[in-house]
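Repro:
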Amino acid sequence: MQSEQNPIEALLKTQYRAFAARDAEAMRGIYAEDADWTNAFGRSLSGRDAIVAYLGELFADPNFSDGDTLPVRHNHSLKLIGRQDDGSWKIVSEMYMDARQETTHVSDG
């Protein structure tokens, strides 16, 4: 099992580092060619090229960052990672959602 975890861990670390560096091109290798992606605002994209292009625009937007640090945002992401025909692991689907503090259901029992 350990040999299966290392490539996935490397994939996630690559994504983390590329996002922190605001380097969309560095993320090209982590998404499957036909990946789908949805952000917390409901924007959905299909395909690695569209995802990388959008992230490049986002990272270049001065409203996204002040240039030195990324704004703090509390969200969650759900990733579906799949083995590709060449044996590599890629993100095939990713969805971001805002973290909420309010309670949506309280059990009576």
